Each structure stands twice: as C-alpha cells, then as structure tokens.
Description:
The chain is built from 13 helices and 10 strands. It has helices spanning 11-22, 52-56, 59-71, 118-124, 132-148, 162-169, 172-181, 183-210, 240-255, 274-278, 301-309, 321-331, 347-360, and strands at 32-33, 82-83, 99-102, 107-110, 153-154, 227-228, 260-266, 285-289, 313-318, 336-340.
Amino acid sequence: MIRELEWKPDFGKTVERFEAWWHGEIVDRPPVTLHVAPSRPYQGPVKEHASLRKRWMDVEYVVDSAIAWMQCHDYVGDNFPMFWPNLGPEITATLFGCELEFSESTSWSKPVVHEPDDWYRILEMEPDFDNPYWQVIERMTDYAIERCEGRYIVGITDLHGNYDILAALRDPQTLCIDLVDHPELIMQAGRHVAEAFVQSFERSYAKISAAGFGSTTWCNTYHEGRYYVPSCDFWLMVSPEMAREMILPDILFEMKPLERSIFHLDGVGALKHLDLILDIPNLHAVQWVYGAGQGPASRWIEVYRRCLQAGKSLQVLAETAEDALTVLKAVGAKGVWLTVGEGFRSVSEAEAFLKEVERLQI
C-alpha cells in the first residue's frame, strides 16, 4: 500500500492517524483536515465546452484540471492530494436507466418510475454498468490512475445507496406515498438497489486497490482496506419506526463488505435517527452535517458527546479554526477528526493552528 506521495511525503503519518481515529485512539494528535490558499498559479487546461453536460463528461479535461489544481496547493495537517471521479450524487440511479441533468456544481436524476407498477420493472433489471455515465466514472478512474505517478490518491465516486436510489428513481415525495401504499414492494426494491450499490462499490474498489490505493472518497478520511460512507438522506422524511423496519436492513446490507465506515447524517431533521445509527455495532464513526445556517459546530457539542459515549468516532465539521478548538476543548481529542471549513492564508498560519491542537488535546 502507498504510504508516501510526492505532493505529501508524510502521507504515511496521516494514514496512521486515521487508523487510530477509526478506533477512537490517537497516535500523536487527532487527524486534522484543513486547506491553505493556493501558493502556485493554476497551469491546467482551459477549454470551452458546448454544454455543461459535455464539460462534466470530458474525462481528460476533468482529470487533467483536477491534477493541475492539486499541484497549486500545499498539503498541511492530514489533508492529502486526492482525485475522486464525480458526476454528482445520483450516479447509482443511472444503473437503472436514469438520465442525469447537470448544473454548474452538481447533477440530479430524471425519474424513471412514474407509477407504482413500474417498480416491478426495476425489480427485473440488472444494474447496467455499461451506461454512459458509469462508463465515464470508470474511465476517469482509469485515467487518474494512469496519470498518478505517485503524486496523489485516487478515490471512489459518490455512491448514494438504498432509499436514496429509490428516491432518485421515483422522487422523494411520491416515494413516501409508495412506502405507505405498497410497503412490501418498496422493501423488495430497496434490497434490489442495495445489491447494486454493493456491486458498484466492489467494482470501484477493485480498480483502486489494484493500483495500490486504500479507500477514500468525497469524505476524505482514509483506510488501507475497504472503507465507505453509509448514508440515507431520504430518511429525513420518515419516522424512526419506519427507518428501523424498512431502511436500516438495507443500510446494514450495504455495510457488509466494509472494514471501516463513517455514517453521513445530514440535516437537523435527521437527528431523530441518531440513536438508530449509534446502535449499529460495526459502524466506526459519524459525520454530523448540521447544515447551512445551523452552525457553528460548537452548537452541537451534545451531539458529539452522544456519539463518543456510544463508542463511535466522529468528524467535526467546524466553520472556523476557533470553532474547531472550542469543540476540541469541550469533548477531548480521542475519536475526534477536526475538519476546518474556513481556509488558512498560509502554511505557517495552518501549522500554528496544528500546534494549538497538539497543545489542547486531552
């Protein structure tokens, strides 16, 4: 496994910090992800595309631009240079026939389930990994590996699973009605798409592991084996009882191949499911995303404490350096991964923050 990168020679230490963090321990300090303003000019490709779709789907442009952008930066703390192929969060829905619509910064699916009976058609489908969107993801992965030359890590795309796939195939509000009117049918569909999620993870992991990488993705922690981010944004719309009976079994199914996992819990309304995920025995960590206008992180110290008391590590998405230090003082350092949203102006400023983290750790 790769332990040293040209653009981050101390990557091996970061790997050790994250491995300790998965188990609620510390090597020398908790892992800290932060960003420093670019110190070198961007020298990558500049290209006009006929449409947003063509830009998103331009494999060489996307990868070459990302490499050039990585080269502009210094990697301080436990941030590391990483490319992950991305066509938006609903790529798994394309395995069942969805088309994607693109905006400047994200994409969304066009539903293909228009009536409850359409779910029977989905149940008869095998995931189509030859569709143009998934093929772009695999070509991006291959090309990024080809161009890597020991400079950066190649990660796994954003694989939404279980009922988020169902919501992309149908639409969230109508899926809620189907859950009430046709619960057995929807549970069958949930397991069917969860099986496709596992296949998509296995295909992606096979590529990166063959190239000598461990696992990382948009949630840029790291593990030298199988790691991913279980989630269900849709369950914001359902009760804890329905989440436990209908959705949790598919989340657990999707977690079976994983050696490490951090649950993505998104939005204040999703906190009603916190106890449910804290009861998952093989879950290692929680990423609590409180959302725009709901910060700072220090507002949610009791949530962090609940996670730590349940034996789960956590990612603290702090708005500023001061916010991160406030949480650290309150909950301690063991099991805490600090991620600072506001960028630092210089390497020296970032390094001064890391020294403060070392001084404060308990």
